[in-house]
Amino acid sequence: MTHPYFQGASEPRILAHRGLSSAPGQDPSLWENTAAAFAAAHAAGAEYIETDCQVTADGDVVLFHDATLERVAGDPRAIAEVRTAELAELFSEHGGLLTVGDALEAFPRSRFNIDVKSATGAEPIGPLIAPHAHRVLLTSFSDRIRTTALASVRRAGAAMSPATSGGTRVIGALRALSGIRLSSARALRDVDAVQIPERHNGVRLFTPSLVRAAHAHGVEVHVWTVNDADDMRRLIAAGADGIVTDRADLAVATLGIS
């Protein structure tokens, strides 16, 4: 049965990668994974927002990709070492800091794809997601972190489990099994999607056999990170169910989402 996360949404799926912070004409001071970036993605017509979470020194689960502030703010400190109030001040002129709970409350019509970046976030994210599980997909590169986070949501009393996409172990098994035409049923058990780059370390992950195997078990295939219009069209024509993109505005226009 299709998870509510996908029901009633436009196809193909457009997942706004960390919101929308790189469109022409946007304020160059706007940071990814901020309230303003999410608002821009929503305004552009993206129904799905892809984001990431880290845990602050106060134990708050905030939306941020990197383990440190170096790339975004030129500050070498780890997010885990910084108090939430200090982060909020730092973000105040760049789009606004969001916790997981803040984002789900502030954007009640958006569907969130949340990548849990560290083991410390797997347990505390559960109660935050539980009231919104019908419109959240939880994932992580680590399948251990992913399954821990899903269990935390269920323990928090969610009416249903969130949707989920497989981590590196699931993807590796799917790629190998599909390539030799063996059943992928076990690898894809309890998985709603796989989210992959077209290629990784010179190996093509997005293959016709992988797409066929995923679709045979009702699992969607999303490709990241795709910012070229021709690539968007090509991948969707080849069977991708969705794309993760920095240019949700371009994707909506290119793929005819309304």
From TrEMBL:
<protein>
    <submittedName>
        <fullName>Glycerophosphodiester phosphodiesterase family protein</fullName>
    </submittedName>
</protein>
<dbReference type="InterPro" id="IPR030395">
    <property type="entry name" value="GP_PDE_dom"/>
</dbReference>
<dbReference type="Pfam" id="PF03009">
    <property type="entry name" value="GDPD"/>
</dbReference>
<feature type="domain" description="GP-PDE">
    <location>
        <begin position="12"/>
        <end position="255"/>
    </location>
</feature>
<dbReference type="InterPro" id="IPR017946">
    <property type="entry name" value="PLC-like_Pdiesterase_TIM-brl"/>
</dbReference>
